[in-house]
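hey
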């Protein structure tokens, strides 16, 4: 013989199960939402840092181009070191003479570059080795710097 409980008795044993399930589902959803929001915040920080890095390398390349123009035309504004084989004693700051000056053109606002060069003589001829570091943004995680070094024939 099988014992069957009346329907009313079965429902009384299930009381509270819906509440526990709802709390569990809400907790799981809250954890998922918190994880996603953290992921999106990190993604935004990485994108901003990549953007600053792209601007910094452009500032460094711009500094090299300005220095090449200055050296190639013998302009009087070039003060960067030209000492062979030694660290630079003077640095050209682009866009201005003070390290705190920044570019004032679209895309490079708030950026600057520090450039020095040295002369290298080889069997192939004389070359300039030009070293430029571009800085954009603030310091630490709020900014970026990139370094570019080229060798150009004199």
């Amino acid at each position: 013989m099988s014992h069957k409980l009346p329907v009313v008795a079965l429902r009384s044993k299930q009381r509270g199960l819906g509440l526990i399930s709802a709390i569990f589902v809400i907790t799981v959803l809250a954890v998922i939402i918190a994880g996603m929001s953290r992921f999106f915040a990190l993604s935004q920080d990485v994108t901003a840092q990549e953007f600053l890095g792209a601007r910094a390398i452009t500032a460094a390349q711009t500094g090299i181009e300005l220095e090449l123009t200055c050296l190639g035309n013998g302009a009087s504004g070039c003060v960067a070191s030209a000492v062979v084989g030694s660290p630079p004693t003077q640095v050209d700051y682009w866009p201005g003479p003070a390290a705190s000056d920044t570019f004032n053109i679209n895309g490079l606002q708030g950026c600057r570059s520090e450039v020095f060069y040295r002369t290298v003589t080889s069997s192939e001829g004389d070359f300039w080795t030009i070293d430029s570091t571009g800085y954009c943004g603030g310091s630490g995680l709020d900014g970026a710097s990139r370094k570019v070094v080229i060798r150009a024939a004199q």
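Helices lie at 7-13, 17-72. Residues 17-72 form the longest helix (56 residues).
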